[in-house]
Write a structure and sequence with these properties.
Number of helices: 6
Distance between the termini: 33 Å
Number of strands: 9
Strand order of the largest sheet: 5-8-7-6-9
Largest sheet: 5 strands, mixed, barrel
Structural class: alpha/beta
Shape: globular
Strand content: 15-25%
Radius of gyration: 17 Å
Helix content: 25-40%
Bound molecules: hypoxanthine
């Protein structure tokens, strides 16, 4: 469906994407958005067959993701009595399309009625106990991207950017889940060992290149946020090895089934 989106601000663009989404999915109101990060895509299948699957490019304001491991599809799935939107692949800040593009899916979902946003990602770990394949709940974040999706005097409260209530639900589902502070870099280069030393001094536990702007936009829109990192590697300089994207994807792939089950159980218990 082509509509004229010229001259719309980011919120109007999200509202227009939400209208097309409702039409394409025949679901007037979605309840939950689940964003699947690098390597998490196979976890989508744990939600069962999609009522509808569309390519994000069918919606106003979206562009195809540029990164391997990100499919650019949106699924609408019914879980219990909730309509769940699953975003397979996201736009990253390092793609250079700007912060509004990074959070467009979150704003669209919120315009479509979503009150719960589940953000997943692949992350490097500063905690040597968290070996590749370990899921870690995000309890707070340090935004070192240099960006924000907020423009003007929008003084959004981010005291509890990741909902304690949702973290408790996740811990009921999976009692061994630990929590950490996610530190977001602009990327796309991985961090230097010196930057990892800085993150450690700041109190960060996980490093990645996503999620932080989306969680801010979700809070701006009044949604509750759950964040889960899948550790795919020890942070730069910690293992004596170099980092690469294939390793990140492989770690995601082998954990995807377990992660899918975890996500579905969390959504069932919302
Ligand atoms: N750093 C940044 N992003 C990442 C990493 C990392 O070590 N692993 C997966 N995504």
């Amino acid at each position: 469906m082509s509509i004229d989106t010229e001259g719309l601000d980011p919120y109007q663009l999200a509202a227009s994407a939400a209208r097309v989404l409702a039409k394409e999915t025949k679901v007037v109101h979605h309840d939950v958005l689940v964003v699947l990060g690098s390597g998490w895509t196979p976890a989508a299948d744990a939600f069962g067959p999609a009522s509808t699957e569309i390519s994000v490019t069918e919606l106003p304001g979206f562009s195809a993701p540029a990164v391997a491991g990100h499919s650019g599809k949106l699924r609408s799935v019914r879980v219990g009595n909730l309509n769940v939107l699953i975003q397979m692949g996201r736009t990253h800040y390092y793609e250079g399309k700007g912060a509004h593009a990074v959070v467009h899916a979150v704003r669209t979902a919120i315009a479509a009625g979503v009150k719960t946003v589940v953000l997943t990602n692949a992350a490097g770990s500063l905690n040597p106990k968290w070996v590749p394949g370990t899921p870690v709940l995000i309890k707070d974040q340090i935004n070192l991207t240099g960006g924000t999706p907020l423009v003007g005097a929008r003084f959004v409260d981010v005291t509890e950017i990741y909902s304690k209530r949702l973290r408790n639900i996740a811990k009921q589902v999976s009692p061994n889940l630990e929590e950490g502070i996610y530190t977001a870099f602009h990327g796309p280069q991985y961090e230097t060992p010196a930057e990892i030393a800085m993150v450690r001094a700041m109190g960060g536990d996980l490093v990645g290149m996503s999620t932080a702007l989306e969680s801010i936009a979700a809070r701006e829109g009044g949604a509750e946020v759950l964040g889960i990192s899948l550790v795919t590697n020890l942070a730069a300089g910690m293992s004596g090895e170099t980092l690469n994207h294939e390793e990140v994807l492989a770690a995601g792939k082998s954990a995807a089934e377990t992660m899918g089950k975890l996500l579905v159980e969390v959504v069932r218990n919302l």
